[in-house]
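Hi R.,

Here's the chain you asked about this morning:
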Amino acid sequence: MAQQLDPALLRRQYEAMDQARSLAGLQASMQSQMQPLRMESLAADIEAKRQAYPRKLADLARKDLEFRALLGLRDRSQQATERYQQGRLAQMANRPVREPLIRPITIADPDDPTKGIVVDANTGRKLGDRPPKAAAEKALPTSAAQKLMENQQNLRRAEQALTLLEGGAVGEAKGDPEAVGKKGFLASGGDVGNYLLNAIDPSGVDTRAAIADLGSLVIHDRSGAAVTAAEYPRLRPFIPQASDNPDVARKKLRRFVQEYRNTVGETTDFYTESGYKVPAETLRPSGGMPATGPTKIKNDAEFDALPSGAVFVGPDGKQRKKP
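And the predicted structure, written out as C-alpha cells:
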C-alpha cells in the first residue's frame, strides 16, 4: 500500500530548505561585499611595502658603506703600524752598538782577601780598589781589659821562664839550661833542701825561681773564670818540676807557653768576634820570642803526656789533635 506522507513534515523540510537557500544567499552577498574591502587592504599593504622598500635599500647601502669604511680604516692603521715597525727596525740596524751600562759591584781581591775590589758585573773588568767596610767596634769593658792585660803579663812571665831555662838572660836574671835535673830532688826537703840546692848551684837560682812561679800564674779564660795554672787542666801537665830532666823540662815549658798563649788567644778572639776593640799586641810574644808550634812527639809516652785537645805533630809529620 502506498505510504502516506505527513504534510507537516513536508512543510518543515521545505522551510529548512528555504532557510538554507537564504543563508547561502546571505553568505554570498557578504562575500561579494567583503571582497572589495580585502582587495583594498591588500593593495594598501602592497603600496606601503613598495614605498618602504627604497628606504630599506638606502639603509642597507649606508651600512655597507660604513662597514667598508671601517675595513679600510683598519687596513690603513695596520699598514701604518707595519711601516712604523719597519722604520724602527731600520733605525736600530743602522745605529752604532753601544757598550752595556757598567754595574759596579764589590768583591774580595783574589790576590789579597783582606781588601775589596770593584768590578763590572757585566764584564768582570776591575774598575778600582775599594777597602772593605770596617765594622763598628765597641769599647772593651774595663774589667775585660784588665783580664786580658793580666793574661798578657802572666804569659810574658812564662816566656821569660822558658828563656832562662834555655840559657838566655832576662834583664839582670841569668839563665841556666842545667838548673833542673836530679839535683832538684833537694828542693823536696823544704827550706833546708832549697838552701842546699841554691848553695850547690847558685847559677840556677833565677831559672828555678821562675819555674816555681809558674803554678801560681792566674789565667782568665773566655768564660770569665780565673784559675791558677796549677788548677787549669790544660796547663797543669806542663808545669816543669825542679827534678825533671833539663830536656823534658824545656819541652814541658814550651808546651806550657803554647797552651797559655792559645788560651789567651781564645779569650781575645771571643771579645773580637763579639765586636769589641782588642789591642793587637795581646797575642804578640814578648822579648822577641818566636811563637811555638804544635808539639812533635816520637813515641807513645810523649803522646800520653799530652792533655786532651792538644794539637801535636806525629812521627809521620802530620798534625793531629788528641781526643
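Residues 283-293 have pLDDT under 50 and may be disordered.

Let me know if you need anything else.
M.
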